[in-house]
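Query structure, 508 tokens:
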């Protein structure tokens, strides 16, 4: 049964009036609504059973469709790699530098517009915002199949980056409004595993669509863009009915279920966000927090490697001596293995509460994999290295985002921090899209070397250093060295400190 203190907090009408963006993602909830604990009087076993039923309902309603949207998003941003080996560069008469520029410009607009689109997600309902950006990038994707020159492709890629910018950070924020910290990692991993599935599915789909070459007078690579773009538009329209809004407006929840979502987040000490309205000090709290930059470095290591891998994997495999269709098909198994590894690490990190150790361990696979790509010219060794590279990169993306989110309290500070972390990681796509040069084929020493450096210096070393600093800070807090931070403060002021509270223990 809930303690008296917990029940008093839950029944406090002042708090109920202020439940806002932090817990439910929306502001100005009707203050007259009487939110009571629906499980008052139940035993702990009965409460746990009710929570399991609620979690299953949330998982079924939220995770599959959101993962499907990210699969489409990642498929649409990386299928240019499949189109390249089917003749895109030759047909548009692009130089190697021009082709790389079309990859680069996506990441520039993607990183620049990410903070703005996340604000729009908070201002609009998810069921409105997500369909709009999906239809937008579906149109951009379709137009990529209709271009005739470098300028047209550059324009389409720029707007594709603008339109896609709101999905990944927005969905991660959205999911944090539903799940406790210990439940978030596996959901974020399942959501992100769609990126690996997109690579796997994309190779199969591209190989099939490319057979349409000549239909309507268009080459196969053009049909890859056109058909996938039209499919995205259709899914975007359907998302108006398939994407649910924040808990206070989600129609699939009963009033009791809405109350349970709130109670569970409060029990997870995410209640401080209920009282927040945006102030610039939340922005500066994030900018001046060492954790923001540590996680940005770690995410830079895995995200920079991710984009290099996903954009150039078909080209790398093609250089092993396989035709375009075979190369697209051979890119499927590494992605499938990466998807399984991503979900497994998400589950393991949630169970062990050791996200840092998971990052450190799994990054070793990527380091070994790209060392194999650098050190051997044998097709079998290089193909095995591709598998290890995928295993070492993909799980660290979702795990790093969950690790960063777990260690930042306060919705606005968390939003700013994740914006910096994800934005900085995506900006490194500018580097990733320019390191696999045509002049370096077939071994691509420069590209493999840069990815290996990212994995060692930023992902592995960054994870080791960050975990050490978190352990060091936790010891100080447990000894009471940080208690002076709250001297002279009242209870509400202490609560507003978020992760700066002396009793906030960092997740390792």
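Result returned for the query:
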């Amino acid at each position: 049964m809930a303690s008296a203190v917990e029940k008093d907090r839950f029944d406090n009408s002042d708090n109920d009036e202020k439940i806002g963006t932090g817990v439910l993602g929306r502001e100005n909830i009707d203050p007259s609504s009487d939110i009571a604990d629906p499980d008052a009087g139940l035993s702990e076993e009965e409460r746990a059973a009710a929570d399991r039923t609620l979690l299953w309902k949330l998982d079924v309603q939220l995770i599959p469709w959101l993962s499907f949207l990210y699969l489409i998003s990642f498929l649409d941003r990386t299928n240019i790699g499949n189109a390249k080996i089917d003749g895109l560069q030759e047909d548009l008469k692009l130089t190697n530098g021009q082709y790389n520029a079309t990859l680069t410009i996506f990441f520039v607009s993607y990183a620049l517009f990410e903070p703005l689109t996340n604000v729009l997600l908070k201002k609009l309902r998810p069921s409105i915002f997500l369909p709009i950006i999906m239809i937008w990038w579906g149109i951009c994707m379709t137009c990529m199949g209709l271009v005739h020159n470098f300028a047209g492709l550059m324009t389409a890629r720029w707007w594709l980056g603008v339109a896609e910018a709101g999905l990944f950070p927005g969905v991660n924020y959205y999911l944090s409004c539903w799940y406790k910290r210990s439940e978030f990692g596996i959901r974020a991993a399942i959501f992100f595993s769609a990126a690996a599935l997109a690579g796997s599915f994309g190779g199969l789909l591209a190989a099939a669509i490319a057979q349409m070459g000549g239909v309507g007078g268009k080459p196969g690579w053009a049909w890859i863009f056109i058909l996938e773009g039209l499919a995205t538009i259709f899914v975007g329209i359907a998302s108006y009915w398939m994407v649910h809004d924040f808990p206070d407006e989600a129609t699939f929840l009963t009033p009791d279920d809405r109350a349970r979502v709130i109670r569970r987040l409060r029990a997870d000490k995410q209640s401080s966000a209920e009282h927040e309205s945006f102030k610039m000090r939340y922005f500066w709290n994030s900018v001046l927090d060492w954790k923001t930059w540590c996680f940005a470095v770690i995410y830079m290591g895995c995200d920079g490697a991710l984009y290099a891998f996903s954009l150039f994997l078909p080209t790398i495999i093609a250089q092993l001596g396989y035709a375009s269709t075979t190369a697209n098909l051979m890119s499927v198994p590494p992605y499938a293995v990466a998807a399984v590894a991503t979900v497994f690490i998400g589950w393991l990190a949630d169970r062990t509460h050791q996200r840092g150790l998971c990052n450190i361990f799994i990054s070793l696979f990527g380091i070994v994999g790209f060392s194999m790509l650098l050190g051997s010219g044998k097709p079998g060794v290089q193909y095995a290295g591709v598998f290890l590279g995928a295993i070492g990169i993909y799980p660290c993306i979702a795990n790093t985002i969950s690790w960063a989110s777990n260690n930042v309290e306060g919705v606005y500070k968390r939003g700013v921090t994740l914006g910096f972390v994800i934005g900085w990681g995506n900006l490194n796509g500018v580097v990733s899209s320019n390191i696999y040069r045509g002049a370096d084929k077939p071994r691509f020493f420069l590209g493999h070397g840069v990815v290996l450096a990212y994995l060692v210096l930023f992902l592995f070393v960054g994870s080791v250093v960050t975990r050490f600093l978190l352990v060091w800070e936790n010891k100080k807090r447990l000894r009471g060295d940080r208690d002076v931070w709250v001297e002279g403060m009242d209870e509400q002021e202490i609560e507003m400190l978020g992760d700066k509270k002396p009793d906030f223990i960092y997740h390792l």
